[in-house]
Amino acid sequence: MKTMLSAYQKSSLWIWLAIAVAAVAIAPLLLSDFRLSLLAKYMCLAMVAVGIGLAWGQGGMLTLGQGLFFGLGGYMMAMHLKLTDVGPGGVPDFMMLYGNGEVPGWWEPFRSPVLTVILILVVPAATAFLLGWAVFARRVRGAYFAILSQALVAAFSLWLVNQGTSTGGFNGLTDFKGFFGYSLKDPANKRMLYFIAATVLIGMVLLTRQIMRSRFGELLVAVRDQENRVRFLGYNPAIIKTVAYTIAGIFAAIGGALFVPIVGIISPKDVGVTPSILFLAGVVIGGRTTLLGPVLGTIALRFVETGLSETYPAFWTYFQGALFILVITFLPQGVATLGPWLKRMAERYRYRRTKKPAPARAAETIETPQLVGRT
């Protein structure tokens, strides 16, 4: 039985993988360049959602501050693109206007493309690990962790605004011309970025699936459900939660790094408290405990948001709020559970239609014993 179940799971994985590849290949044929660019943007946001699904859905860590890691990856990529556009020894235009005409020393490492890629992975990972260990080792969890993570992203957003001479301030960094030697004005390169984002997103989903099916994934779920029991069994929940939180931070940083060349801008409004809450909203709508729910929920939410804002520019936020309430009310586990929910409803309906009424029981006759007198 176990072998048959394993074979079924493997076949299901290949089916979903084939569907994903087919969707990625067909989308450029059906969508315009503008819509394809939007889909690539939403895929970058879905990368953040995959990490939230792992940290929150599997580990129970309500992360309201993933904009911090999204912003770290995005700004580091933007710094590299700005330095590449001005050439060796050049100074970005906004530093000439608002600064002293010199590149800050902490910008210089981002002139190297190899070092930039390494820093995009290492800096958010180290930040997430240090923050996670400092919090989880002191057994901070639940609402306290959520508020703390949100406070961190709010502080980061304010710092970006105040550092106008080195981060572009409220306007952020924009007007990128190239991406690792390729012109961003060429539509063919825009499509290349779409395929890169799609490939990275599929890779993250596959990696998350392996983590969920591994021994570490089982421990992560156990920590979510019974943290004290896991501690009594000899494991350190702080390490388990910190590793999951670090992986989620890396996913968010990669999404932010790809977001910059696709969208063409990164600013504090892309990494603040509101974007971090919207990251979480997509995961809730899709289904935080499922593998594909965070991805599907995020992409669907963003497309609905775009469609409503174009059709109802003055009222689209109300429609979006109503959609969120309906999903939470009728599908509290997310849209990804719609299939099983419909199956249960169909089975319940079929059972009620086919159920025969119980036959009426015949009235029982009670025989009164006759007393026989003695003679």
Give an overview of the whole structure.
The chain contains 15 helices and 4 strands. With about 375 residues, it is mainly α. The chain has a domain at about 30-270. The strands form 2 sheets. The protein has a two-stranded antiparallel sheet with strand order 1-4. It has a two-stranded antiparallel sheet with strand order 2-3. The chain is globular and about 80 Å long. Residues about 1-10 and about 360-365 have low confidence and may be disordered.
* Largest sheet, strands/sense/barrel: 2 strands, antiparallel
Q: Unreliable runs, pLDDT <50, ≥5 residues?
A: 1-9, 362-366
For the termini, the CA-CA separation is 76 Å
- In the sheet with the most strands, the strands line up as 1-4
Mean pLDDT: 85
Sheet/helix structural class? mainly alpha
Query: Nearest-angstrom radius of gyration?
Result: 27 Å
Number of helices: 15
Number of strands: 4
Q: Indicate the proportion of strand residues.
A: under 5%
Please identify the oligomeric state. single chain
What form results from the Cα inertia axes? globular
The level of helicity is over 70%
Task: Break the fold down into its secondary structure elements and pairings.
Layout: H1 2-30, H2 33-58, H3 67-86, H4 93-98, H5 113-136, H6 143-162, H7 164-167, E1 173-174, E2 178-179, E3 182-183, H8 187-213, H9 215-225, H10 227-232, H11 237-263, E4 265-266, H12 273-286, H13 293-311, H14 316-330, H15 338-354
Antiparallel strand pairs: 1-4, 2-3
Helix pairs in contact: 1-8, 2-8, 2-11, 2-12, 2-13, 3-5, 3-11, 5-11, 8-9, 8-11, 9-11, 12-13, 13-14
